[in-house]
Amino acid sequence: MNEKQQRPLGRPRQTDKKQPTNELIIQVAALLFMENGYQNVSIDDVAEKCNVTKATVYYYYASKAELFTQTMVQMMVRIREKIRMLLQENLPLKERLLNITKSHLKGTVDVKMDGFMKGTKNTLSADQKVKIKQAEASMYEAIENAFIDAIAKNEIREMNPTFLAQTYLSLLKVSNYNNEKKQIFSTIEEVAEQIIGLFWQGVRKQEEHQNKQQ
Predict the structure, then answer these.
(1) Bridge partners of residue 183, in order along the sequence
(2) For the segment 50-76, what is each residue's pLDDT rounded down to a tens digit?
(3) Of 1.10.10.60, 3.40.50.300, 3.40.190.10, 3.30.1490.20, which CATH number belongs to 7-61?
(4) Distance between CA 145 and CA 150 in Å, rounded?
(5) What number of other Cβ atoms are within 10 A of residue 141's Cβ?
(6) Alpha-carbon distance 114 to 168, whole Å?
(7) Could you say which architecture CATH assigns to the domain 78-213?
(8) pTM higher than 0.90, yes or no?
(9) Residues 43/10, Cβ–Cβ less than 8 Å
(10) Can you name the residues that pair with 177 across neighbouring β-strands?
């Protein structure tokens, strides 16, 4: 039996490419979904950008919904690891949060967040939605643990760490554009400083506030 007969339908041929085909598909799909939104990306689009056949994409991912789910999960895993790395730096919490904020803003500056998830509500299965939610929760866990640690060290005032994490993450979604698509601030760094400055007003210790007033 020759190689062609042994190879299952749709299975990509083995090549000398360093990057595995399934990883390439995920990487390309992530960029397409973020730039164009779920509704405006097809399996054909992904296959063309990857320079593979449509059957090859379906060999790894049975549907666009499955491809999107795996793309989201793996993207959140990478974000979680980046967050953990930044949180491990030997810096005050405020500076670590500022670095995370800058990194997030730089990574999403060209992402059309309004249309990113549009069209997935009635397309993804319940199991796929759960997988994305679990990946999201795991991503946010590192932030929440950082607040728990900061409270224990008396670095910030005592508050519910889950609430703090959700509040901080909500601020990360603030856009640098007004309704007329004009920039509010001139640089990403300035946006990050404004976000952290606003957030820190609510979490800093009372004595720190009093010392600044004196």
Answers:
(1) 177
(2) 999 999 999 999 999 999 999 999 988
(3) 1.10.10.60
(4) 9
(5) 15
(6) 19
(7) Orthogonal Bundle (1.10)
(8) no
(9) no
(10) 183
